[in-house]
Amino acid sequence: DIGDIVRGRDLYLGDDKKDKEQKKKLQDNLKEIFNMIQKNNESILGGLSLDQVREYWWEENREKVWEAITCDAKGFNYFRPTCGSSGETPHVTPSQCRCINFSVPTYFDYVPQYLR
């Protein structure tokens, strides 16, 4: 899951040495990126650990990431009804795997990976 990768919580270690090397390279690149984000936003993020910066960034950008992933998924629905306000019966996504209000149709990214 992209959220686990961004937040540094991906449990998948890789099938072989090449996978593990690629994962390490990706995580090293992400650490560098998030260090730059923290440095460029010192007033907001300066007192946070790198893990907290990653969590903060994901919370602020998860809807935009989902939109970017699904922008060309016209006519597709998320696999189960998840859209709707609190107390409302959930309904399916009308198109592009997005709810009518453009929110992300799932919160699985907040469920620990080993429970999904």
TrEMBL record:
InterPro entries, alphabetized: Duffy-ag-bd_sf, Duffy-antigen-binding
Any Pfam family the entry gives: Duffy_binding
Organism of origin: Plasmodium falciparum
Taxonomic classification, please?
Eukaryota, Sar, Alveolata, Apicomplexa, Aconoidasida
Question: In what residue span(s) does the Duffy-antigen binding domain sit?
Answer: 1-116
Q: What Gene Ontology molecular function terms does this protein carry?
A: host cell surface receptor binding
- Could you tell me what this protein is called? Membrane erythrocyte protein 1
For this record, the Gene Ontology CC terms, alphabetical, are: membrane
Q: Which gene encodes it?
A: var
